[in-house]
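The data are set out underneath:

___
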Amino acid sequence: MDRTLSRDPRRNRQESDRDALLAVVSHELRNQINSILGWAVLMNKTVTDAETLARGLKTIERNANIQAQLIEQLIDLSRVRIDCLKPKAQKTSLVPILETALDSMMPLAREKGIEMASRLKGSKHAVNADARLLQQAITNILGNAIKFTPAGGRIDLGLVTFRTRAEIMISDTGCGIPREQLHLIFDPFKQVHTNQTKHNGLGLGLTIAHHIIATHNGTICANSAGEGKGTTFVVTLPLEHSDSQN
Protein backbone atom coordinates (compact mmCIF):
# COMPACT_ATOMS: atom_id res chain seq x y z
CA MET A 1 0.00 0.00 0.00
CA ASP A 2 1.20 3.49 -0.78
CA ARG A 3 2.25 4.94 2.55
CA THR A 4 1.21 8.44 1.47
CA LEU A 5 -2.37 7.24 1.14
CA SER A 6 -2.51 5.73 4.60
CA ARG A 7 -1.31 8.75 6.56
CA ASP A 8 -3.52 10.41 9.17
CA PRO A 9 -5.33 13.38 7.56
CA ARG A 10 -4.84 15.32 10.81
CA ARG A 11 -1.11 14.87 10.53
CA ASN A 12 -1.23 16.13 6.96
CA ARG A 13 -3.08 19.26 8.12
CA GLN A 14 -0.62 19.81 10.95
CA GLU A 15 2.31 19.55 8.56
CA SER A 16 0.58 21.89 6.14
CA ASP A 17 0.01 24.42 8.93
CA ARG A 18 3.63 24.09 10.01
CA ASP A 19 4.88 24.65 6.47
CA ALA A 20 2.61 27.69 6.09
CA LEU A 21 3.91 29.09 9.38
CA LEU A 22 7.56 28.63 8.41
CA ALA A 23 7.04 30.13 4.96
CA VAL A 24 5.17 33.22 6.18
CA VAL A 25 7.34 33.85 9.24
CA SER A 26 10.63 33.46 7.36
CA HIS A 27 9.43 35.84 4.64
CA GLU A 28 8.22 38.52 7.05
CA LEU A 29 11.23 38.37 9.38
CA ARG A 30 13.65 38.37 6.46
CA ASN A 31 12.09 41.54 5.06
CA GLN A 32 12.50 43.40 8.34
CA ILE A 33 16.02 42.08 9.02
CA ASN A 34 17.21 43.00 5.52
CA SER A 35 15.97 46.55 5.97
CA ILE A 36 17.57 46.91 9.40
CA LEU A 37 20.90 45.45 8.28
CA GLY A 38 20.95 47.48 5.08
CA TRP A 39 20.47 50.77 6.88
CA ALA A 40 22.89 49.82 9.67
CA VAL A 41 25.66 49.10 7.15
CA LEU A 42 24.88 52.27 5.18
CA MET A 43 24.88 54.46 8.29
CA ASN A 44 28.09 52.89 9.59
CA LYS A 45 30.09 53.33 6.39
CA THR A 46 28.87 56.14 4.19
CA VAL A 47 26.14 58.30 5.72
CA THR A 48 27.30 61.58 7.23
CA ASP A 49 24.44 64.08 6.88
CA ALA A 50 21.94 64.42 9.72
CA GLU A 51 18.84 64.09 7.52
CA THR A 52 19.83 60.68 6.13
CA LEU A 53 20.92 59.49 9.58
CA ALA A 54 17.53 60.45 11.01
CA ARG A 55 15.78 58.64 8.16
CA GLY A 56 17.86 55.53 8.76
CA LEU A 57 17.19 55.52 12.50
CA LYS A 58 13.46 55.94 11.90
CA THR A 59 13.45 53.04 9.43
CA ILE A 60 15.37 50.80 11.83
CA GLU A 61 13.01 51.67 14.68
CA ARG A 62 9.92 51.01 12.54
CA ASN A 63 11.15 47.64 11.34
CA ALA A 64 12.28 46.62 14.83
CA ASN A 65 8.79 47.44 16.13
CA ILE A 66 7.25 45.35 13.35
CA GLN A 67 9.50 42.43 14.33
CA ALA A 68 8.49 42.79 17.96
CA GLN A 69 4.82 42.69 16.97
CA LEU A 70 5.37 39.59 14.81
CA ILE A 71 7.10 37.80 17.68
CA GLU A 72 4.31 38.75 20.10
CA GLN A 73 1.75 37.34 17.68
CA LEU A 74 3.72 34.11 17.34
CA ILE A 75 3.88 33.78 21.12
CA ASP A 76 0.13 34.36 21.37
CA LEU A 77 -0.51 31.82 18.61
CA SER A 78 1.53 29.21 20.48
CA ARG A 79 -0.53 29.92 23.60
CA VAL A 80 -3.73 29.51 21.61
CA ARG A 81 -2.58 26.17 20.21
CA ILE A 82 -1.67 24.73 23.61
CA ASP A 83 -4.73 26.34 25.20
CA CYS A 84 -2.73 28.61 27.53
CA LEU A 85 -4.30 31.91 26.48
CA LYS A 86 -7.04 31.69 29.10
CA PRO A 87 -8.70 34.68 30.75
CA LYS A 88 -8.32 35.53 34.42
CA ALA A 89 -11.82 36.91 34.50
CA GLN A 90 -13.39 39.27 36.97
CA LYS A 91 -16.28 41.68 36.91
CA THR A 92 -15.09 44.76 35.04
CA SER A 93 -16.58 47.76 33.29
CA LEU A 94 -16.57 47.40 29.52
CA VAL A 95 -16.25 51.02 28.39
CA PRO A 96 -12.78 51.70 29.93
CA ILE A 97 -11.43 48.61 28.14
CA LEU A 98 -12.71 49.92 24.81
CA GLU A 99 -11.44 53.43 25.48
CA THR A 100 -7.96 52.14 26.33
CA ALA A 101 -7.86 50.04 23.16
CA LEU A 102 -8.96 53.03 21.09
CA ASP A 103 -6.42 55.36 22.70
CA SER A 104 -3.59 52.89 22.08
CA MET A 105 -4.34 52.78 18.34
CA MET A 106 -5.05 56.48 17.85
CA PRO A 107 -1.43 57.50 17.07
CA LEU A 108 -1.17 54.87 14.33
CA ALA A 109 -4.45 56.01 12.79
CA ARG A 110 -3.38 59.65 12.87
CA GLU A 111 -0.04 58.82 11.28
CA LYS A 112 -1.90 57.16 8.42
CA GLY A 113 -4.43 60.01 8.12
CA ILE A 114 -7.42 58.01 9.33
CA GLU A 115 -10.16 59.51 11.50
CA MET A 116 -11.25 57.46 14.52
CA ALA A 117 -14.44 58.11 16.47
CA SER A 118 -16.35 56.34 19.23
CA ARG A 119 -19.90 56.09 20.47
CA LEU A 120 -19.58 54.35 23.81
CA LYS A 121 -22.63 54.27 26.04
CA GLY A 122 -23.54 52.21 29.04
CA SER A 123 -20.49 52.83 31.25
CA LYS A 124 -22.28 51.19 34.19
CA HIS A 125 -22.46 47.85 32.37
CA ALA A 126 -19.96 45.18 33.31
CA VAL A 127 -18.72 41.92 31.85
CA ASN A 128 -16.90 38.99 33.40
CA ALA A 129 -13.61 39.40 31.59
CA ASP A 130 -9.85 39.52 31.65
CA ALA A 131 -9.44 43.22 30.90
CA ARG A 132 -5.94 42.81 29.43
CA LEU A 133 -6.92 40.03 27.02
CA LEU A 134 -10.17 41.66 26.00
CA GLN A 135 -8.33 44.91 25.30
CA GLN A 136 -5.86 42.94 23.18
CA ALA A 137 -8.69 41.45 21.13
CA ILE A 138 -10.25 44.86 20.45
CA THR A 139 -6.84 46.33 19.68
CA ASN A 140 -6.21 43.56 17.15
CA ILE A 141 -9.51 44.29 15.41
CA LEU A 142 -8.81 48.04 15.36
CA GLY A 143 -5.32 47.37 14.02
CA ASN A 144 -6.81 45.28 11.24
CA ALA A 145 -9.20 48.12 10.38
CA ILE A 146 -6.33 50.63 10.25
CA LYS A 147 -4.29 48.28 8.08
CA PHE A 148 -6.99 47.99 5.43
CA THR A 149 -8.30 51.57 5.52
CA PRO A 150 -6.60 54.13 3.25
CA ALA A 151 -5.65 57.66 4.21
CA GLY A 152 -8.70 59.87 4.55
CA GLY A 153 -10.83 56.95 5.76
CA ARG A 154 -12.75 56.56 8.98
CA ILE A 155 -13.09 53.96 11.73
CA ASP A 156 -15.96 53.95 14.22
CA LEU A 157 -16.06 52.09 17.52
CA GLY A 158 -19.54 51.68 18.95
CA LEU A 159 -21.20 49.93 21.88
CA VAL A 160 -24.83 48.92 22.29
CA THR A 161 -26.10 47.08 25.37
CA PHE A 162 -29.16 44.91 25.59
CA ARG A 163 -30.71 43.09 28.53
CA THR A 164 -28.20 40.26 28.66
CA ARG A 165 -25.50 41.16 26.17
CA ALA A 166 -23.27 43.87 24.82
CA GLU A 167 -22.48 44.38 21.15
CA ILE A 168 -19.22 46.09 20.18
CA MET A 169 -19.11 47.34 16.60
CA ILE A 170 -15.94 48.31 14.74
CA SER A 171 -16.69 49.72 11.29
CA ASP A 172 -14.26 51.05 8.71
CA THR A 173 -14.43 52.61 5.27
CA GLY A 174 -11.57 50.47 3.99
CA CYS A 175 -11.09 48.05 1.14
CA GLY A 176 -13.84 45.68 2.27
CA ILE A 177 -13.81 41.91 2.07
CA PRO A 178 -14.83 39.95 -1.04
CA ARG A 179 -17.72 37.66 -0.18
CA GLU A 180 -15.75 34.56 -1.11
CA GLN A 181 -13.10 35.45 1.50
CA LEU A 182 -15.38 36.29 4.44
CA HIS A 183 -15.29 32.75 5.82
CA LEU A 184 -11.48 32.75 5.87
CA ILE A 185 -10.66 35.89 7.82
CA PHE A 186 -10.37 34.24 11.25
CA ASP A 187 -8.13 31.45 9.96
CA PRO A 188 -4.41 31.75 10.75
CA PHE A 189 -2.11 33.05 7.99
CA LYS A 190 -5.05 34.28 5.93
CA GLN A 191 -4.98 37.81 4.52
CA VAL A 192 -7.64 39.60 2.52
CA HIS A 193 -6.35 40.26 -0.99
CA THR A 194 -8.32 42.57 -3.22
CA ASN A 195 -7.70 44.48 -6.41
CA GLN A 196 -7.21 47.59 -4.29
CA THR A 197 -4.71 46.40 -1.74
CA LYS A 198 -2.41 43.62 -0.67
CA HIS A 199 -0.60 43.62 2.66
CA ASN A 200 2.18 41.66 4.23
CA GLY A 201 1.97 40.21 7.71
CA LEU A 202 1.27 36.97 9.50
CA GLY A 203 -2.50 37.24 9.39
CA LEU A 204 -2.77 36.24 13.05
CA GLY A 205 -4.40 39.28 14.67
CA LEU A 206 -8.00 38.26 13.94
CA THR A 207 -7.26 34.59 14.75
CA ILE A 208 -6.06 35.59 18.22
CA ALA A 209 -8.96 38.00 18.70
CA HIS A 210 -11.42 35.25 17.76
CA HIS A 211 -9.90 32.90 20.33
CA ILE A 212 -9.92 35.52 23.10
CA ILE A 213 -13.56 36.43 22.44
CA ALA A 214 -14.52 32.74 22.44
CA THR A 215 -12.82 32.19 25.82
CA HIS A 216 -15.04 35.00 27.16
CA ASN A 217 -18.17 33.12 25.97
CA GLY A 218 -18.62 35.68 23.24
CA THR A 219 -18.81 35.70 19.46
CA ILE A 220 -17.26 37.75 16.68
CA CYS A 221 -18.42 38.08 13.10
CA ALA A 222 -17.56 40.23 10.12
CA ASN A 223 -19.81 41.78 7.52
CA SER A 224 -18.90 43.53 4.29
CA ALA A 225 -20.90 44.61 1.29
CA GLY A 226 -17.93 43.66 -0.86
CA GLU A 227 -14.69 45.02 -2.21
CA GLY A 228 -14.23 48.74 -1.64
CA LYS A 229 -17.26 49.00 0.66
CA GLY A 230 -15.72 48.75 4.12
CA THR A 231 -16.10 46.16 6.85
CA THR A 232 -17.93 45.92 10.16
CA PHE A 233 -16.90 43.58 12.95
CA VAL A 234 -19.43 42.79 15.67
CA VAL A 235 -18.28 41.37 18.99
CA THR A 236 -21.00 40.07 21.29
CA LEU A 237 -20.31 39.49 24.98
CA PRO A 238 -22.60 38.40 27.82
CA LEU A 239 -23.24 41.07 30.44
CA GLU A 240 -22.48 40.33 34.05
CA HIS A 241 -25.95 41.47 35.12
CA SER A 242 -29.35 41.20 33.43
CA ASP A 243 -31.03 44.47 34.46
CA SER A 244 -29.21 46.73 32.04
CA GLN A 245 -31.00 48.98 29.62
CA ASN A 246 -30.17 50.21 26.09
Observations:
- Strands lie at 90-93, 115-120, 126-129, 154-161, 165-172, 219-223, 231-238.
- Confidence is low (pLDDT under 50) at residues 1-6, 242-246.
